[in-house]
């Protein structure tokens, strides 16, 4: 009898351990490390600046302990405050760099919408054309927001057509539109989330759920761009602001 290769003699359990399964997503610390490498490569001064702010805050805490004699209180207060101050500055730098990398790319607006804070549901590419102009639809407490990416003049027609489609089921729900880009009347990618979060809250949670249900009944638009829309782009989230 011919001998089996050593690899084939391994048990199924051993083979399963060796690979073949889906790769695990990187952990939180690994993600922070990857972001730190990106920030250092794009902006070498950002990380030293964040560390410097942390050291400065900690030094002020030590000074407070020296002046008041309450060392334990000031140290326990200074360490977390120093960490938070440095981390917030690092996060802001990472967010700014991500926006710079996304600026001008097809699907940049979609990447921001999918990672936006708040109770939003996003439908990518609800309308578009062969010139790679595209319209996304976001639904939230303000109502319906149509976000266009592409040529400003061609987007006007696409957004107008999508507004008519949405109005058939949205009834009196407010419908806003935003164009992402650097052209006249467009919103830079770095300001898109701010613009969305500044919109008034016109609907309650039940009304938003009903609106989403009605929008599902809309047939898909006919013309769609054939280019890829990037999905799953993870962006560092900034500090949550009070609502």
Please tell me about this protein's structure:
The chain is an alpha+beta fold and about 240 residues long. It folds into two domains: about 30-100, no CATH class; about 110-215, no CATH class. Strands 1-2-3-4 form a four-stranded mixed β-sheet, sandwiched between helices. The protein starts with 11 loop residues before the first helix and ends in a 28-residue tail after the last helix. It is built from eight helices and four strands, in the order αααααβββαβαα. Helix 2 (about 30-40) packs across helix 4 (about 70-100). It is about 50% helix and about 10% strand.
Helix and strand sequence: HHHHHEEEHEHH
Contiguous helical run count: 8
Beta content comes to 5-15%
Shape: elongated
Instruction: Report helical residue fraction.
Output: 40-55%
Question: Major sheet, described briefly?
Answer: 4 strands, mixed
Domain count: the total is: 2
The average pLDDT score comes to 76
Distance between the termini: 75 Å
Strand order of the largest sheet: 1-2-3-4
Structural class: alpha+beta
Q: What is the number of beta strands?
A: 4
User: What gyration radius follows from the Cα positions, in whole Å?
Assistant: 25 Å
Outline the low-pLDDT stretches: 1-21, 235-243
Transmembrane segments: 47-66, 72-91
Pfam families: DUF4191
Keywords: Membrane, Transmembrane, Transmembrane helix
Region (Disordered): 1-26, 222-243
């Amino acid at each position: 009898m011919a001998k089996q290769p050593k690899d084939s003699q391994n048990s199924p359990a051993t083979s399963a351990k060796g690979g073949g399964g889906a790769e695990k997503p990187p952990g939180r610390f690994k993600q922070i490390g990857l972001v730190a490498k990106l920030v250092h490569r794009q902006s070498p001064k950002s990380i030293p600046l964040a560390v410097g702010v942390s050291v400065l805050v900690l030094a002020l805490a030590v000074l407070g302990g020296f002046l008041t004699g309450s060392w334990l209180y000031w140290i326990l207060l200074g360490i977390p405050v120093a960490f938070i101050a440095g981390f917030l500055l690092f996060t802001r730098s990472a967010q700014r760099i991500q926006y710079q990398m996304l600026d001008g790319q097809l699907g940049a607006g979609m990447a921001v919408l999918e990672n936006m804070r708040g109770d939003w549901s996003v439908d990518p590419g609800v309308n578009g054309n062969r010139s790679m102009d595209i319209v996304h639809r976001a639904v939230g407490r303000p109502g319906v927001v149509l976000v266009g990416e592409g040529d400003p003049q061609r987007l006007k027609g696409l957004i107008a057509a999508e507004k008519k489609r949405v109005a058939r089921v949205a009834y009196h729900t407010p419908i806003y539109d935003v164009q992402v880009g650097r052209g006249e009347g467009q919103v830079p990618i770095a300001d898109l989330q701010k613009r969305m979060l500044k919109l008034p809250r016109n609907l309650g949670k039940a009304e938003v759920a009903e609106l989403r249900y009605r929008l599902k009944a809309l047939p898909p638009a006919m013309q769609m761009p054939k280019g890829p829309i990037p999905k799953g782009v993870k962006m560092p989230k900034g500090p949550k602001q009070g609502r």
